[in-house]
Amino acid sequence: MIAARDLRKQFHGVEVLKGVSLDIGKGDVIAVIGPSGSGKSTFLRCLNHLETIDAGDIAIEGETLASTDAAGVCRYVPEAEARRICRKMGMVFQQFNLFPHMTVLQNIIEAPITVKGMSRDAILPKAEELLRKVGLLEKRDAYPSRLSGGQKQRVAIARALAMEPDIMLFDEPTSALDPELTGEVLRTMRQLAEEHMTMLVVTHEMNFARDVSTAVVFMDQGEIIEARPAGEMFSDPRHPRTRCFLEHML
Amino acid sequence: MDYIFQILGPLLDGTAVTLQVFLLTLVLAVPLGLALALVRVSHFRAASTLVSGYIWLMRGTPLMLQMLFIYFALPFVPVIGVRLPDFPAAIVAFTLNYAAYFAEIFRSGIQSVGRGQYEAARVLGLSYGQTMRRIILPQVVKRILPPMSNETITLVKDTSLIYVLAMNDLLRAARGIVQRDFTTMPFVVAAAFYLIMTLVLTWGFLYLEKRHAVYED
Prior knowledge:
The complex is a heterodimer. Chain A is α/β, with parallel strands linked by helices. Chain A has a domain at about 100-165. Chain A has helices at about 40-45, 80-85, 105-115, 120-135, 150-160, 180-195, 205-210, 230-235, 240-250, and strands at about 1-10, 15-25, 30-35, 55-60, 65-70, 75, 90, 165-170, 200, 215-220, 225-230. In chain B, helix 1 runs antiparallel to helix 2, helix 5 (about 115-125) runs antiparallel to helix 6 (about 130-160) and helix 6 (about 130-160) packs antiparallel against helix 8 (about 185-210). The longest helix of chain B is centred in the first third of the chain and has 40 residues, at about 1-40.
């Protein structure tokens, strides 16, 4: 579903991605773990063009988003094309980023109506079904400021799902939440995984990485150090840096 | 009291002129200001710089000077060379001037909306135009209401500058009566008129603020 080849990126001369490659197959639930500043969020944001890469190739479901030629020049496909390709991926942010001037329901139906040109009548049943799924149907007419962090994040998940993406990207979805609120968000994500949604999750939740994901990727200093099935990674980390990190986290 | 009723006629005529200048300027300068702000925050470097220069020019010289220039000097400017009657000249000057101030208010509003809103819109597939129209500008409206209220109240009072083009606005009408009758009463009545107009504006903006208070950022 996603093929990322040798992604490189610098921020003001600092190399944050030093050649990261990852293949994500259909139904994979991949947890990306690692210390802060390891480049894992940047990696995720490069995949859907929130950041641009300096070099490397990205293809989403076989369609090229960015490619680098032999001379080392990295090119993106035209903007409209890139937007169409990136629509296959939904994204959930650490800071929710709900639209504050819209109610919960309006947040969810906005993109299907504006981007896909769906009628309100056509998207409404689907939106309500999604709200029921994340357990927030009774909040449909509330504004985001009236919701708890966990509720906001569940709305954000429903909003992303309303565009019917094939892949869901999660950028530390529980890091801005009070500890007692992470559970409800993780439950929703687990439910998605059980429905075989392809997911890439940057997270500090080791339990989620171990129990829900099919594979775990450990990143440090802009590189993938180790990428293995979840069970193996936690029971038998090979690389010393992975071992050190996991010992601190568990 | 009888005297007040007696001078009410000419003062109301002056108020009509004041209100015309005020409303026309508002209707023309707000959209123009928004357009300028959108260019100013866009990635078209040359156009953005041009708008910055325009704003510098319009905010950096007195409105009265601009009005006099458009009325007296514009006819002699090559290429443009139009001779505008007094009322249109005043409207053009006010619109060009106020659009610059409105543009800066819009710009501050647009730039106060966090990056996360753009990113959320982008990952949902919205284009830049859709993001502006559906996500950013509706939030900007709420944020700029207080400074817009300020600026429109200033506009009401600035309309009195049109006296330099010998137009009979509220203040000039009052002054005319003062000079004729040797009483300052017309000034008091004119002040009351201005206060009523700004009070209506204040209430209007308060109402808008309340309506936008249904959500919090």
